[in-house]
């Protein structure tokens, strides 16, 4: 695997949840896997530009469908008329994969999210916050007391984004399908 090129990613701007007129709902059978996949590719292009190779940034339609069907998938839509049918965000809760999971994800009371993406043209207005809040609420409903995630260790801006939201590093992990070490972050919910 190629090593990521050292580079500085642009900062991730703080979100303001009251700015985004967003509807978040569960994935429905008629939702477009193609649209979700294209959204993922656009959102993860920032990491790909510096040589990181995240699965969500290159997965095909079949892989997206598999991941959506093996998790609780939530989608975000803008409430204003011209965008109310366009998927602008996605997140998976408790995805079940065919690979070995980080030990932390397997602990009792720990939920995890993955494949988190917001349309790059709509970031920093609260879409991501709404998706994250939805996952936390659902995780609590399921009896969980912590939320965890996996992120690319070289992405310092993304780490700061999660640290501002109370997440702390608990483990490092190497997924078999990425070219970088991941950080496992968690927080009490």
What is the strand content? 25-35%
Number of H- or I-type helical stretches = 5
Shape: globular
Architecture of the domain at 17-144, according to CATH? 3-Layer(aba) Sandwich
Q: Strand count, sense and closure of the main sheet?
A: 7 strands, mixed
- Could you name the CATH topology of the domain at 17-144? Aminopeptidase
Which structural class should the secondary elements be placed in?
alpha+beta
CATH class value of the domain at 17-144: Alpha Beta
Specify Rg, calculated over alpha carbons: 16 Å
Mean pLDDT: 88
Distance between the termini: 36 Å
Kindly report the name of the CATH homologous superfamily of the domain at 17-144.
Answer: Gcn5-related N-acetyltransferase (GNAT)
Query: What's the helix-strand series?
Result: EHHHEEEHEHEE
Strand order of the largest sheet: 1-2-3-4-5-7-6
Per DSSP E runs of 2 or more residues, the count of β-strands stands at: 7
- Estimate percent helicity: 25-40%
Low-confidence stretches: 1-17
